[in-house]
Design brief:
243 residues; 30% helix
């Protein structure tokens, strides 16, 4: 599939395969591969009519773990719980199984890099998914840190991520475009472009870090100006501030 369609497909795929899936890059796009039994195949075909299936050998249930490796972003080591961080490393441990956000995606890494460059203060991770960005913010010295997502599973996973990393993050279930949210110094939103633009219009903070869109795209954000921009693997993240 084209890169621009990948984010929505990942979100749908996580609902069908919460244990995880593979991403295989090709010259003309991205292939997403999930491992399910026969009872799950019908659900996949209903959601992805063009999907193909292939029989796999025993042990497919754990094969997805082979594709989740540690990454570095903002001076942090970010990896799954079955990998050991190097001695003395500032680490963020995140289980990739149930909610989007392992730290490996370019948009997530770019947000964390910009967080590391930002003045320390209060942070809201809007649309937090697994909570990896919120936990990274806390690990980098931002405080207090808040996180919100309208998906109950994401909220549960984000709370587990915070507990696993022993950091203070206040996490709540909320629609970030409608519900009351805490006023903070910096809001981070790694979500689709239209939602980024709507969120910026709410002016929840004087500064923002946004991502979830391709390098040739930029949020239309009247009243905001860009302070910094980071592009990774065809994706972009911006640091913005209110004029």
């Amino acid at each position: 599939m084209p890169p621009g369609e990948a984010e929505a497909a990942r979100a749908r795929l996580l609902e069908l395969a919460p244990a995880g899936f593979e991403e295989v890059e090709h010259e003309d796009g991205l292939e997403l591969v999930a491992y399910v039994d026969r009872s799950g195949e019908a659900s996949f075909r209903a959601t992805f009519p063009a999907a193909t299936s292939t029989a796999v050998a025993e042990g497919w249930e754990d094969r997805w773990r082979d594709f989740h490796h540690p990454v570095r972003a903002g001076g942090l080591w970010i990896g799954p719980p079955w990998e050991a961080p190097p001695p003395g490393a500032a680490a963020v441990i995140v289980d990739p199984g149930r909610a989007f956000g392992t730290g490996a995606h370019p948009t997530t890494r770019a947000c964390i890099e910009l967080l590391a460059r930002s003045e320390r203060g209060s942070v809201l991770d809007a649309g937090c998914g697994s909570g990896v960005v919120a936990v990274a913010a806390a690990r980098l010295g931002h405080a207090p840190v808040f996180a919100a997502d309208r998906d109950e599973t994401a909220v549960e996973v984000a709370r587990e991520t915070a507990r696993r990393n022993a950091v203070e993050v206040e996490i709540r279930r909320a629609d970030i475009l409608v519900d009351e949210l805490p006023q903070v110094d910096l809001v981070v939103a790694n979500i689709e472009l239209a939602v980024v633009e709507a969120l910026l219009a709410r002016r929840l903070a004087g500064r923002a870090i946004t991502s979830g869109y391709l390098a040739h795209e930029s949020p239309r954000a009247p009243g905001w100006e860009r302070d910094d921009r980071l592009e990774l693997d065809g994706w972009a993240a911006d640091a913005l501030r209110i004029l």
